[in-house]
Amino acid sequence: NTEQTEEWLQSYVDDWVAFYRKHTTDGEVASYIPVLQEADPDNLGITIIGKNGITIRSGDDSIPFTMQSISKVLSFIVGCMERGVAYMLDRVDVEPAGEAFNSIIHLEMKQVKKPFNPLINAGAITVTSLLEGKTSDEKLKPILELLEDMLGYRPAINVEVYESERDSSMRNRAIGYYLLEVGFLESDLNITLETYFKQCSIEVTMDDLARIGMILANDGEDPDTQEEIIPRQVARIAKALMLTCGMYDASGKFATYVGIPAKSGVSGGILAAVPPRVREEELPFLDGCGIGVYGPALDDKGNSIAGIRLLRHIAKQWDLSIF
Ligand code: GLN
């Protein structure tokens, strides 16, 4: 029964979190956005939400953190819902870049007609410029509404983190000016960047990421209510992008060793969606579950160092790889 299963899974996850917490010392908290440096590098936690409300929560839960790059999945989804998939994919490609998330190098290559994908900064800033609305608040509103549909509450923007990034992000401004010069942006640059910094500063918890992950895992449908929150085609593209580009230039390794569509952010969060597949063994309720991880100590690619190792361990033990 559900309760026994929950208890049984819980005891495993507690052990694994305790073990991988020791790995947090191998990483470092992001510092290029000054306020993010205040995070506690020892923190590590995970929430798994599966069928029938089954919830496993371990480690430092309930610590709020900002979405950062994880928000790129949502802005892309909202863009597709507002403008249609064809419109978006005409303007942003869906190919892994194999470069750091804030790389500028590809933009200068002559054959590049659009940013590589919506999950690197150049693509994400372009996506944000395609969102409807004239002001940053108008552009953000549908993102916050989508989150509210999924989470049951409307998350807030962490103003301190927003201002910290706004006042420090020379690289993103450089990317923005480049995009403007080559004509990829469809909104005013300053409004686009303001929106982008605000979406990165939306504050969530591991539980929130697990719920979003579960809805994506189920092709955009909330399995509790059977309500379609994200159109199926859009949810599937989002997962394909997460799998191929979601962990920056470590996406190939993550697909190889973990095998789950996931998206990380430099605040240390990871959103993961475990798509349902027919399985015969004893863990069917993990089919279609969502996973949220928080661990602000990062590896050199900008992914939660202990978070990735924890996910890798869980995916192996419970056979979660989609391959
Ligand atoms: N706001 C961050 C930036 O643009 C997001 C990057 C990330 O999470 N990788 O630099």
Automatic annotation (TrEMBL):
It is an enzyme of class 3 (hydrolase). InterPro entries: Beta-lactam/transpept-like, Glutaminase. It catalyses: L-glutamine + H2O = L-glutamate + NH4(+). Substrate binds at residues 69, 121, 165, 172, 196, 248, 266. It comes from the Bacteria. Its EC number is 3.5.1.2. The keyword NAD does not apply. GO terms for molecular function: glutaminase activity. Keywords: Acetylation, Hydrolase. GO terms for biological process: glutamate biosynthetic process; L-glutamine catabolic process. The keyword Ribonucleoprotein does not apply. NCBIfam families: Gln_ase (TIGR03814), PRK12357.1 (NF009021). Belongs to the glutaminase family. Homotetramer. This is Glutaminase.
